[in-house]
Amino acid sequence: MEKYYCTTAIDYVNGAPHIGHAYEKILTDVINRHYSQRADLAFMLTGTDEHGIKIQKTSAANGMTPKELCDMNAQKFKDAWKALDIDYTRFIRTTDENHEKVVQKIFKKLLEKGDIYKHSYTGLYCSGCECFLSEKDLTEDGLCPDHLKKPEVVEEENYFFKLTKYKDAIIKHIKTNPDFIVPSFRANEVLNQLEDIQDISVSRAKSNVTWGIDVLDDPEQVIYVWIDALSNYITAIGYDVDSQSEEFKKLWPVDVHVIGKDILKFHSIYWIAILMALDLPLPKHIFAHGWITIDEAKMSKSLGNVVSPTSVLETFNLEYPDAFRYYMVTAAPCGKDGNYSDDDFKEKVNAHLANSMGNLLNRTLSMLVKYFDGEVKQEFKQNSPLFDKALATIKAVEHNFDYFEIQEAAQKIMELVDVTNKYVTDNAPWTLAKEEKMQECGIVLTTVLEIMCVISSLIYPYCPNIAKAMAEQLSYDINTKLDNITCNNIKVGKLIEKENIKPVFLRVDSEFADKSKK
Ligand code: MSP
Q1: Alpha carbon distance 83, 499 (integer Å)
Q2: Beta-strand (E) ranges in 9-73?
Q3: Is residue 401 domain-resident?
Q4: Which residue, 294, 401, 390, is CA-closest to 345?
Q5: Which domain holds residue 510?
Q6: What is the chain's mean pLDDT, rounded?
Q7: Sign of CA dihedral 339, 343, 346, 349
Q8: DSSP state of 244
């Protein structure tokens, strides 16, 4: 695989990041890290969406200029992603000079092409969604169903994009590419929305919205925030209307846009039409993930249950974000909603990462030291049916990732951990040692250590720090590409000294965690 290009939605900066935003960034980071184990180049783009009426209103309410609010909050997103080890390749802000310039040119090109035209319009605008809603989108009380607020009646002369021109081509594309929208059950929703699609307004009058990118040659209008925002996926990698960078040529089309289910329409209809209008190839996949609730309730400022991702790290005194990352991306099957709760978090990461996976490595290495002074002998290196299971797990995990089944892939990894634990229990190396069957004992321990190398590679995208700590104790190269993994990684000779055996993950709220908390 030559390259893998994945993107996240870019977050509005009218507030600080919460764990819903974090869920998506971790998911994408896990995907990106997995493909870095398969592709020559893996590229992840994330960033912030900084224009629009919402930011304009929030900054005014806080006595700040919009740019001051954006600078302050964009930094909070960057800090949070750093704390979560989100290893993005590039971070775009829609207030970046280059982005603004290219968006203006894109708009101009579509205008010249005749795909954008001017039109007087009266509509219902929801600032929460940053979009016009039709009467039939509203609740019985006339409210936006997502934000439970009454949309504003807006009467403006705007520029419109001829979405209807692309309707049939989009329908055809969705129908002929069943894995274009993931999960596939969402494709029907999009096809239903396409049924009565209208041309969309793609600018706002400056009399109503000032915080946006100016339409070239028309200073009274700013470009609609979604046209601005969606274009980030190409401007960030060097697309320009009349020239394209080498990077763009290498990376585009994108392999996957990872987004929340609430913004699927913008990506699978509006964005696709724009790309068609620009004569650009279409994304390979759009993966719409579900929503994260807190203790089974929707997160909202009014309920006071908005959880910041860094507060979870602080509450549990986590030195590394691995446990939180693991928990979040395994919280829901592909595309379904998931839930965060402190108790469930503790229970799951202790069971999977500490008891099953971490302990397996720790006690195997400890036995190697106890019985063999940490040395692996040539005669310990024997083939095992467990190796076939490990190599089959790599293939199964790759298959899951190709379908964005990130939780399901983690289950496969944990199954391999469980099977290996069972192998240890069944073969009882401590009994073999007692009976002085030393070669048999050494074979069992070495077999487990071989499997642990594979597990460290597979768990790496989810838990990069734990994986590195495992690999270090196994003298295994964590950068091994998945295709090159064998079950012949453990070298003959001294593997480890007693003092270098360290638990790779301490139980959350364990004695150790409590001690460092004090
Ligand atoms: N700015 C737009 C996206 C533009 S993409 C060209 C936007 N921003 S947002 O800040 O409201 O949301 C950013 C992402 O976070 C979206 O994909 C959204 O679905 C996701 N989430 C926001 N709250 C969420 C949860 N509670 N759970 C999971 N993801 C959610 O939309």
Answers
A1: 29
A2: 11-12, 41-49
A3: yes
A4: 294
A5: 341-517
A6: 95
A7: negative
A8: B
Q: Among this protein's residues, is 453 annotated catalytic?
A: no
Closest CA to 198 of 230, 160, 225: 160
Burial environment of residue 203 by CB neighbours within 10 A (0 to 12, 13 to 18, 19 or more): buried
For residue 185, the tally of other CB atoms under 10 A from its CB is 11
pLDDT, one tens digit per residue, over 150-161 is 999 988 888 999
d(CA 454, CA 394): 8
Beta bridge partners of 222: 204, 214
Whether the CB of 234 sits within 6 Å of ligand 1: no
For ligand 1, the distance from its centroid to the CA atom of residue 101, given in whole angstroms, is: 25
User: 183: cis peptide before it, omega within 30°?
Assistant: yes
Distance CA 474, CA 496 (A): 8
Rg (CA), the chain: 26
In a domain, 118, yes or no: no
Phi, then psi, of 37 in degrees rounded to 5: -90, 0
At 510 the pLDDT is 64
pLDDT for position 343: 92
pLDDT digits (tens, 9 = 90+) for 38-82: 999 999 999 999 999 999 999 999 999 999 999 999 999 999 999
How many domains in the chain?
Answer: 1
Ligand 1 atom nearest to 299, measured from its CA: 26
User: Angle at the Cα of 476 (from 473 to 481), degrees rounded to 5?
Assistant: 145
Asked if residue 461 belongs to a domain, the reply is yes
Strand partners, 92: 47
Q: Report residue 384 as tokens.
A: 């095992």
* Distance, CA of 60 to CA of 164 (rounded, Å): 37
Q: Is 6 one of the catalytic residues?
A: no
CATH of the domain at 400: 1.10.730.10
Q: Is 115 in the pocket of ligand 1 (CB under 6 A)?
A: no
Q: For the residues of 95-109, what is the DSSP string, one character each?
A: TSHHHHHHHHHHHHH
Catalytic residue among 21, 257, 289, 412: 21
Is residue 129 within 8 A of residue 263, CB to CB? The reply is no
Q: Pairing state of beta strands 11-12 and 41-49?
A: parallel
Whole-angstrom distance, CA of residue 345 vs CA of residue 331: 9
Phi and psi based region of residue 458 (left: phi greater than 0; alpha: psi -120 to 50; beta: remaining) = alpha
Residue 139 neighbours by CB distance under 10 Å = 10
| 510 within a domain of the structure (yes/no) | yes
If you ran DSSP here, which 8-state letter would residue 211 be given? S
**What's at 211, amino acid-wise?**
W
Contact indicator for 447, 441 with CB cutoff of 8 Å: no
Angle between helices 406-427 and 359-372 (to 10 degrees): 30
User: Which of these, 451, 400, 484, 489, lies nearest to 37 by C-alpha position?
Assistant: 484
